[in-house]
Design brief:
single chain, about 450 residues, Beta-Lactamase, Rossmann fold, Helicase, Ruva Protein, domain 3, five-stranded antiparallel sheet, five-stranded parallel sheet, 19 helices, about 20% strand, elongated
């Protein structure tokens, strides 16, 4: 819709809460509204006439300029997260949308960019992250909340604990939390992966041996149970423990004693046992590969750890947690994950759970030099493919069918309005029924 010539465009732009500025083809700023001055800290009369990068010093000004891409390719970009640097050195996180400007003949004459200050959102997010951390375990989901409630009580008891959960759900992290909150917190925490060692080596690792017990046993060696005395031993992948060792572990749990290999003298075991597995122990009991009496001895206090796909609301918190951790480890200053990349991660199934998310971010840290992690920094299997819903976020796809154009227009309008359908209807000047029909059609086409 053409903008009426008799309306005061300057007053209208100054009434907008978001920053708005325009540039010509030489990247000189030609307009700068009041919100832009407030957010950047640069008065309009100083900004106008300067190159845009001299005012913003953004994380994209080093070469990946969103506005330049829009002008060059006549496309649009929406809701991209970056940060700018004010004259006083303060970094301000913002979300930008950009588009080219055309004259009446359709020639590109410059570009326009709108940007929103995300400082308050980032502060709120930081406060929430601090509120939802528990002994290095991050989450606020209902699936985790019950576990958080009972974890301190279980920790304070001396009960044997069985942690159940898929690979990558953080079983060792929970085991460490149980140890740290227990009366044994000043004692050692010893972790053993029962599935990673051969049967013969696992027995000597767990229970130790006496000199001469076997050919290479030149001297006595303490086992992990002895090393963990006064503390906690964490037996991961307990479902993979061979049956001959299951008997020996059962005796430790029942009588609190064991004999090292080659010894006839019992050793006292002052150890709390926490076991974990990603296998169905009851099925293994039915199949006869896991002792039923040992299962009941281990299953005194059971905790089920939910997979990440059942607590998607924790993904943004986990991302912020891992970004902070990787920044500290690698000496970088990555600001976070952009909205488009977050959207991709929120839709991912995460078969590898939290560990997979951490690995994805570690990969992104390799490709992302600074600023926000974008979709192009994610691993190949998370990149948009032609025709997928993810491709809808791409700014320059052609040719498109009319239905696809509708889907993308609706999708972007919903994003601009934070998913609020009534606001989206008013923006697009369509009814609720029309929006519902378009969304249903887009869903059938796989466009959203």
């Amino acid at each position: 819709m053409p903008f009426p010539e008799d309306l005061p465009s300057g007053a209208i732009l100054d009434s907008i809460a978001d920053g708005v500025f325009t540039v010509d083809l030489d990247w000189n700023i030609t307009s700068f509204n009041q919100a832009a001055s407030r957010i950047t800290g640069v008065p309009a009369d100083e900004a106008i006439g300067q190159k845009c990068w001299e005012v913003f010093h953004s994380s994209l000004c080093d070469g990946d300029c969103a506005l330049r891409a829009c002008v060059r390719e006549s496309g649009t970009i929406s809701n991209r997260s970056i940060f700018i640097v004010r004259p006083d050195g303060e970094k301000v996180p913002i979300s930008i949308s950009a588009a080219p400007l055309h004259d009446e003949a359709g020639n590109v004459i410059g570009g326009v960019e709108t940007f929103r200050d995300l400082t308050d959102i980032h502060l709120l997010r930081k406060q929430m992250e601090e509120s939802y951390s528990f002994e290095d375990i991050v989450g606020k989901s209902k699936a985790l909340s019950r576990t958080f409630r009972i974890l301190p009580q279980i920790a304070r008891s001396e009960a044997t604990v069985l942690l159940l959960g898929e690979s990558g759900t953080g079983k060792e992290l929970f085991a460490r939390a149980l140890h740290n909150l227990s009366a044994r917190k000043d004692g050692p925490f010893v972790a053993v992966n029962c599935g990673a060692l051969p049967d013969t080596l696992l027995e000597s690792e767990l229970f130790g041996y006496k000199a001469g017990a076997f050919t290479d046993a030149k001297r006595d060696k303490a086992g992990r149970f002895q090393t963990a005395s006064g503390g906690t031993i964490f037996l991961d992948e307990i479902g993979d423990m061979p049956q001959n060792l299951q008997v020996k572990l059962l005796r430790v749990l029942q009588e609190r004693t064991f004999e090292p290999l080659g010894s006839e003298t019992s050793v006292s075991a002052d150890v709390r046992v926490i076991a974990a597995t990603n296998r169905d122990l009851q099925t293994l009991v039915t199949e006869g590969t896991f002792r039923q009496d040992l299962f009941y001895r281990l299953n005194v206090a059971q905790m089920k750890l939910p997979p990440l796909r059942e607590r998607r609301e924790d993904i943004p918190l986990l991302i912020a947690h891992f970004v902070r951790k990787l920044n500290a480890m690698q000496g970088k200053s990555i600001s976070g994950v952009s909205e488009d990349a977050l959207s991709v991660l929120m839709r991912h199934a995460f078969p590898g759970n939290v560990r997979e998310l951490e690995n994805i971010l570690e990969f992104a840290f390799i490709l992302c030099p600074s600023g926000f992690i974008h979709v192009e920094h994610l691993p190949e299997h998370l990149q948009p493919t032609p025709g997928s819903a993810r491709a809808a976020a791409a700014p320059h796809d052609a040719p498109l069918t009319l239905e696809q154009i509708k889907c993308r227009a609706v999708s972007r309008a919903l994003a601009r309005n934070a998913g609020k359908r009534m606001k989206t209807c008013r923006e697009l000047d369509i009814s609720k029924d029309t929006l519902r029909r378009i969304l249903a059609r887009c869903k059938e086409m796989g466009e959203i």
